[in-house]
Predict the structure.
Amino acid sequence: MNQNKLFNRTRWQLAISYAAVMGLILSLLGIGVYKAIAHAHWVAIDRELESVAGTLHDSLELKLQQPGRLEPIVNELLPNLRVIGVNGIKEQLPNRHILSAINQGYYYIRLFDYSGKLIATAGAYPAEFPSAFNSKQWQIITDTKGNLYHQISVSLHTKTQQNWGYFQVGRSLQDFNDYLSTVKIILKLGLPTALILIGFSSWLLAGLAMKPIYASYRQIQQFTADAAHELRTPLAASQATVESALLMPQLDEKEAREILRTIDRQNRRLTQLVADLLLLARMDNQPIADRRQLCCLNDLVSDLVEELAAMAIASEVALTSELRVQQLNVVGDSDQLYRLVANLIVNAIQYTPAGGKVTVILDCSHIEAIIQVQDTGLGIAATEQGRIFDRFYRVNSDRSRHTGGSGLGLAIAQTIARAHHGSLSTRSELGCGSTFILRLPL
Ligand code: ADP
C-alpha cells in the first residue's frame, strides 16, 4: 500500500487530519481543564478566607469593648500581633493562641479603626505591604515586590453593637500561582506528547482502515486487467482472421465460410464472456430476493445429468447421479441454481480424462441441502484450491485452454451460492480427482 502514491498520500492526509482534529479537541479540553482547576482552587481559597475571617470576626467581636481600642485579650487570639501606636509599632509577645486557623504561616490580618487608620497587624504580614485602607469586600492586592495577595474585609463591632472598625484577612497567592504554573507546564508538555502519540497511532489506524479498501482496489485492478486480456483474445483472433482474408486476392465459398465460422466462434466466445461479466456485476449489485421461487433439487440434478449426458459420452466419462433424498426443495432462483450445478458438472467432465467417472450426489442434513459433484479427474493442488474461485483464475492456463474456459465458471458458481446464503467448497487431491460441495439452506 505504501508503494501506491494515491493510497500513501491518502493515508498521510487521514493521519494528519485526525491528529489535527484530536489536537484541537485536546487543546480545548486542556484549556477547559486548566480553567476548571484554577476556578476550583480559587473557590477553595475564597471559602478558606471566608471561614478564617468568620471565625476570627466572631471571636474578636466578643472581646471588643470600645470603638478603635484593642483589648489585651486580643493578643491571645492572634499570633504575631503588632499594635501600631503613636510611638510606632509595639510587638506583643506571642502567647498560646486560641485561634490557630491563621497559624499556618501564609495568612495575615489587619485591623483598621472606623476612620480607616491601621491599628494592628498579625500573622505573616509582609513588610512591603501597602497600608492604604479599602473597604471593598474582596480584593487582590499587589505588594511593592509584585507579589499577589487575596483579601477579605469585614466590619467589626463591639460587644455593645457599636462600630469598632474593620478587620481584613488575606493570604499570599504564591502557592496558588505556583500550583497553576505546574499545571500549565504539565499541560504544555503533555499536549505535544499526546499529539505525537495520536499522530503515530492515527497513521497506523489509517493504514488498518485502508487495508480492505486497498485489497478491493487491487482486486478491481486485477479484474479489469484480466477482463481486458480475456476480451482482447477473441477480438484479436477475429481481427487477424479478417485481415488475412482481406489480403487474399480472392476467396472461394469454402474459404469464406471457414472465415465466417472462425469469426462466429470468436463472437460467441466474446458474447459469452460479456454475458458472464454482466451476470457477475448484476449479482454483485442485486440479491436474488425478487426472483425467489421453490426449486426442486431432485429435478434439477436429474435434468442436468440428462442434459449433459451427451457431453460426458463425447468425453468418454461416465456421468451418474445419486439422489439420496426425495423431493428436496430450496427457495431460490432456479435458473441460477441450474447454472451453478451445470458449471460444476461441466468442469468435472472437462477435467476428467477419458474412462473417468463423474457422480452427482444429492443429500441433506437437517438444515441444508448438499449437492456433491465428484470426479476421478486431474484434481487440484492444495496451493491452488484457495484461488480457483477467483474471477479469471485458471489453475493452469494450458490445462484450461483446450476447454475454452475463461476462469469465470467457479466465480459465477460461488457468487450464486452466496446469493442463496449457501456455500461452495472443494476437496481435491492432485491426480486423484475432486469433489465440489454445494450447501444450500433448506
Ligand atoms: P474455467 O472456465 O477455466 O474452467 P473455472 O472457474 O470453472 O474456469 O475453473 C477454474 C479452474 O479450476 C480451472 O482452470 C480448472 O483448472 C480448475 N478446475 C475447476 N473444476 C475442476 C475439476 N473438477 N477438476 C480439476 N480442476 C478443476
